[in-house]
Amino acid sequence: MTFSIAARCPRTGMAGVAVSTAVPAVGALCAFGAPGVGAVATQSWVNPYLGIDGVELLRQGLGAEEVVSRLVSEDPGREVRQLGVVDRRGGAATWSGSQCTGWFGSLSGPGYAIQGNMLTGAETLSAMQDSFLASAEEDLPERLVRALEAGQAAGGDKRGRQSAAVKVYAAQEYPYLDLRVDEHADPVAELRRVFEVARRQLLPFIEMMPSREDPIGGHDPAVEAFILLPPEERARRSA
Hints:
The protein is of the alpha+beta class.
C-alpha cells in the first residue's frame, strides 16, 4: 500500500529511503539504514523486523540479493511483503510476494531498488526510475525526494495520499536527514517544503555535529549565528 525507493550514492556513499503511502506515519515503519552499510525499505503488510534484520545482515557484509533471499526465506508472511535493499557496494534487490495488493511490482538497477503496491499502475514506478536515473548529478536526498514526486505525479497509491518520509545516512550513526510528514492531504508536496527548509536551516548544522572521532564537532561562526536566529528570521534570510 506504498511506493518507495531505497538507494545509494556512489559519489558520497550516502544511502537512504524515500517512501509515501495512504496511511499515517509511514516513516516510522518502512525506512531503515545505516552508514557505510546500505538501506532497506519494507512495506506492503509491513514487518519492521525485516528492516531491522536486513540492516544487521548488511552490517555483516551480505550483499543486497543475499539479504533479500535470507529475509524472505525466513519470513512465513513473505507472500504479502515487499522489500527493497541496497548494499554498501550499490548492489540492489527487491521482493514482491504473490499476495501483495495490486497493482504491485518493482524495478531495480545499480544503486537503487524501487517498489510499490496498491498503486494506480506501473507508471508510478517507471516515473520514479526515470527521475532517479536523470538526476545523477544531484545529492542523494534531492534524488530521493524527486523520485517520490515523480511517482506521485504518475499516480501513486490508488487510495489517495496521507504520509511521506525520507531518511538518509552519511558517515555517522545518526541520520544525515530524517524527515517525516505523518498526516497531510498532499504529503509528498509537504515533504518537499520541509526538505527545502531543512536544506537551508538544518543540514549545515548537521554537517557540524560531533562524530565518534571528533566529539566536539565543527565550528562555523556563520552557521552558529544563523541557528541562533528565530525561525521566522532564518526563513526570511534564506528565502
